[in-house]
Amino acid sequence: MAPARSQPPRPDGAAKTAPVVPAGWDPRWSSGAAGCETGRVRIYLPSTLNAARSVWESGQVPAGTGFAVTPALREWYAQSESEEELEYAVLHDAARASLRLLDADPAAPRRRLVFVADLADGDVRVRDDLERGAVEVDFPVPWSAVGAIHVDDGDDGEVLDAVAEAADHIVEADLGGEDAAFTVDSVEGFELLWFAPQELPDLL
Asked: Where is the composition biased (Pro residues) (predicted)?
C-alpha cells in the first residue's frame, strides 16, 4: 500500500485495544490469520443491499473508500496482539461506514453490508489522513476478488430496529453528539453474519 500522512496521536498518549473477537466469529475471509498472500491486502468495502443489486448485475464493486489494517490503525491498536483482532476492528469500521450509506439512501433495507476482497498492495491507497484504517480504490473491484460478504440478520427484528436507529443518528454522531454516538455504538453489539459471494442473490 502507498504511504500515508502520519495520524495525530491520541490525546492521552495511550494505545487502544482492538474489539474483542467473539468466540463464534467465523474467521473465514475475515481474518489476517487466514491471511492474504504476500504483496496483497484485505479490504473491507461498506455497502447496502440496494447497492449490492448493482454489484451483482455488474460483476464489480464500485471504486471508492474502504477499510484495511493500515499503519495508523496498527499504531492505534498497539496493545492488540493478534492480526485477527485488527481485522475485526476494521470490519467494525466498515460496518459503521455502511450506516452512513444507509442514511444517504432511505429506501435501502436497514441492514449493514460489507464486502471483503483481496487486492494487490499497489491497487490500494492508504488514507489514514481521512480516518484510521481508511483506504481508497480507484477502480471497480472485480467480483472475482470478493471472498466474503458480511450483513445483518434480516430475520432479527431487534437488529433491524437498532440498525435503523443508528443510521438515523450516524451523522449527528460523526459531528460529536454524545447521545447519538451512544446509539450508534450500541449497534456494534449485533454481529454481522458471514456469507459466501455466491449467496448474494439470496440476500437481495
From this structure: 1-11
Tens-place pLDDT, residues 90-143: 999 999 999 999 999 999 999 999 999 999 988 999 998 888 899 999 999 999
Residue 173: half-sphere exposure toward Cβ, Cα within 13 Å: 20
Q: Please state which architecture CATH assigns to domain 40-152.
A: Alpha-Beta Barrel (3.20)
Helix spans in the chain (H): 49-58, 71-76, 83-104, 157-174, 178-186, 200-203
Distances (CA, A) of 56 to 83, 118, 141, 204: 30, 18, 12, 9
78 three-class SS: coil
Say how far apart CA 43 and CA 93 lie, in whole Å.
11
* DSSP code for 150: E
Neighbours of 56 (CB within 10 A): 14
Contact 111, 141 (CB under 8 A): no
Neighbours of 11 (CB within 10 A): 6
Distance CA 71, CA 164 (A): 32
pLDDT, position 77: 83
